Amino acid sequence: MLVLGVDTATAAVTAVFAEVTDDGVRELATEVTVAGQAHGERLAPAIETVLTATGHAPADLSAVVAGTGPGPFTGLRVGLVTATALGQTLAIPTYDVCTLDALGAVAGPGRVLVATDARRKEIYWASYLDGVRQTEPAVAKPAEVAAGLAVDRAVGDGAAKYAEVLGVPVADEPRYPVGTALVALAADRIRAGAPTETLVPRYLRRPDVTPAAAPKPVSTR
Amino acid sequence: MSVDEPLVLGIETSCDETGIGVVRGTTLLADAVASSMSEHARYGGVVPEVASRAHLAAMAGTMREALDTAGVRLSDVDAVAVTAGPGLAGALLVGVAAAKAYALAANKPLYGVNHLSAHVAVDTLEHGPLPEPAIAMLVSGGHSSLLMVEDLAGRVEPLGATIDDAAGEAFDKVARLLGLPFPGGPPIDKAARDGDPVAIDFPRGLTSPRDLQRHRFDFSFSGLKTAVARWVEARERSGEPVPVDDVAASFQEAVCDVLSRKAIDACRSNGIDTLLIGGGVAANSRLRAMATERAERYGIRVRVPRPKLCTDNGAMVAALGSHLVAAAVPPSTLDIPADSSLPVTTVSLANRIGA
Ligand SMILES: [Zn+2]
């Protein structure tokens, strides 16, 4: 089955086109751009690219897998609304994968901290044992995470950014969610034809409730 | 594709309404709106992050409702249009990303359009093609603009705009002063019906001869709001009851006086006989009546869409999209940004460079 995976919960915009077979997941094409704040501009072209590069069209897809965060809200929503709209239009199921798992699952054996950049001097994090998540995804200051930490190493852009505070060796890869890992984490559900899942963002933070500032004049002479 | 009567889907998420409309030519087929207004009411204004979250949660359901109501499938439409700006950045982005995905999945052209031009275009659904050139006055909680619409498919020029608060914002703030609910437009309109519009002589911003030299077609409502606040405070200090109806009526009279006066001046000085009023404040009964009455004296025809079409909705985006398709305007590419400060002169984003 041909599957699209998307993740926009970090600075990286990831689109992967993969084939899910009985015994594995094969990557057909992938596009990863570290886009800063340009998720909305990069994702749709990336999806178009991974499909057309392999001579395919959206109608060929059987499922869409989305990283549901945690991640900075504005970028995260781009991936989720995109996956939701694709699933709705193509009448195919959408599947939810925790973004941190798309790093943790391919971070190797042992005890690993996965940490992505949450901005505001915080990280989104979870700890893994042999690729399996051991804690609920959370957001916290790196120093608070470091205090209770018992891991061999750390991965992710948040770990790299706060390596000194965390005080554990940081591996170079994976830095961002890995597309094929994302799809692989939903492969059993895809093969089983599991019911579609509503893609609910893992915000982990309440919204700032400052009302919109007075809008600037749209035009001045 | 039928160029005369294109079937277009429009998505609007620039503020707190998730709107999806379907239009065929100038015929409205569906206008589905999910509003997060009630979630913002207790903050006295729209909270951007709350609005953005609500857009994501409401998108698929609103789309289903719009398509079901119109009795069409996405595969039937000729194009997908979306508000690309101006508006709240995070809120816009949800709609733009969704529109790209719908367009990509259904293999349809995408039109990223200007929210203000969409407010103008929506009137074609009610009153047919817009005579060009026309003057458009757009007044809402987010904008107060006078525009010269030479060609709705591409030539829209700003004549003036508010230099401080938007007109709808002034209604919200004065409503709060008077203990009336948010949004302030409807309760002030209602209270004003029982009040005396000449009871209090509130200031008319930017109407003095000196101001008119520099700001002939600009608006200012912040001084008016302050004047209302001072008047109400003085009353309260003196221990007298605040005549809410009279304050509402006098405030509303001042706003409508300035708006209609400047709009008609814009028509007369440019020799234009069509005035279109749009945006949420266009639902105000006094503004409609005053502008129409004053315009008649000069042979100017006033067009105001019905209240539901004046507020933000997807139908207006679809209406503009339909106009653009019929005018053979090139579609947007999939990499267009959501632009929170999109200039009014950019009616649609043909491509990023053009933006
Ligand atoms: Zn508006």
TrEMBL record, chain A:
One of its GO terms (biological process) is tRNA threonylcarbamoyladenosine modification. It holds the Pfam family TsaD. Gene3D superfamilies: 3.30.420.40. Residues 34-161 form the Gcp-like domain. It comes from the Bacteria. GO terms for cellular component: cytosol. InterPro entries: ATPase_NBD (IPR043129), Gcp-like_dom (IPR000905), T6A_TsaB (IPR022496). SUPFAM superfamilies: Actin-like ATPase domain (SSF53067). This is tRNA (Adenosine(37)-N6)-threonylcarbamoyltransferase complex dimerization subunit type 1 TsaB. It comes from Actinocatenispora comari.
Automatic annotation (TrEMBL), chain B:
It is found in: Cytoplasm. It comes from the Bacteria. Fe cation binds at H115, H119, D312. Substrate binds at L138, V139, S140, G141, G142, D172, G185, D189, N284. SUPFAM superfamilies: Actin-like ATPase domain. Its EC number is 2.3.1.234. Keywords: Acyltransferase, Cytoplasm, Iron, Metal-binding, Transferase, tRNA processing. This is tRNA N6-adenosine threonylcarbamoyltransferase. It comes from Actinocatenispora comari.
